[in-house]
Structures are given as C-alpha cells and as structure tokens.
Amino acid sequence: NAGVTQTPKFQVLKTGQSMTLQCAQDMNHEYMSWYRQDPGMGLRLIHYSVGAGITDQGEVPNGYNVSRSTTEDFPLRLLSAAPSQTSVYFCASTGSRANTEAFFGQGTRLTVV
Amino acid sequence: GQQVMQIPQYQHVQEGEDFTTYCNSSTTLSNIQWYKQRPGGHPVFLIQLVKSGEVKKQKRLTFQFGEAKKNSSLHITATQTTDVGTYFCAYGGATNKLIFGTGTLLAVQP
Asked: How do residues A48-66 score in pLDDT, each as one tens digit?
C-alpha cells in the first residue's frame, strides 16, 4: 500500500523555468491538497480538490496551477518559477468522510535559483 | 480570514520534563487535528477532537479541545528523545480543507 506518492524528491530550477510536481494516491480518496512549508510559517495551503474535475484555491495560490483529471492524480504546475517558490512541497489526501485524517506524501524540496 | 496561532514557536526541554503547545483561534472551530512532523519527514496525523471540552489521551500525550472550541492544547508528559519534531494543529471543515497552525518545534536534550 503506497499511500501518497510524490515525485521528484528534489529539484533545482532556474528562474523562469516551468515544471510539474507529481502526486498520486492509491487510497481512493476524494480530497487532495498541496501545501508549501517554509521555515517559521508552517504549512500553507496552495490548492485543493474535492474530487475529479473540481479544484479550488487555498491560502497562497499565486504562481501555481492544478488540475484533477482522475481521482488518483493531482499534479501541481509552476509555469514560471521564481526564487520565492523555493520551499518544501507536500501533497496530502483525505478520505470522503468529513473530519478525517490527512495522509501526506514524502515531500518535494524545490530550489529556484 | 480565520487564523490559528500556535505557541510557543520553539521549546527546548530536558528529557523527562513536560511539554505543552497551544493552539488559539479567533473564531469557533468545528474540529481540531494534531500532527507531528519529525525532522526531515512529513506530517503524520496524531488525533482529531470534535466535541467541546473533549480530552483524549495517547500514552504520554494528552489532547484537549476548549469549551468554546476556540483553543486546543497538546501536553506531553515526561518527554523522550523520540518526541523531537514539530507539532502542528490544523482545522478543517466539511470539504476537508485543512488549514494548519504555524507549528511548535520541540527539542529534547538527553
């Protein structure tokens, strides 16, 4: 049982480059989210999805796009990377019942130079 | 928007001492969850509290949800080096959109 799988684990980008962070879950969870973690600022919600075809913005959505074409996958796209997007990114999924625990992926450490 | 403040930001204790972190909201929360993140790791769910005044225990960890459902606390009795990490509170709603507090980093000196 893999749970939530994120790729890649590490990435270095140049300013202006684009990339996609992959996230997949095999628990048939409806809810999926992307967070970024910066020192002293905890986990901030970027985008989330309540099901295939449905996405919404979180606390810090600017500079990021998402889509949810299947229940399993929830990729995060950086269209034009900026140094301010240097961070650790976590994908999470939650089951369909309200008030249930979130399962996190291992994280992607992104550096934009 | 709704904000959750967590204090302290950092706590250093000697092994065997107790530790408490607090989570405070300006508005009433429907529920509160607690997560632990080991250094270099990812957040792992510890517990969820839903009812006003609820108290739950997990071995040396005691979790409380305030009567007004605006604050919560996590207390660790007799800390061990395995307790090292960052503890986060988080609140969510019907859509499971989880918003996290800023976290408390716990360091335990042997």
From this structure: 999 999 999 999 999 999 9
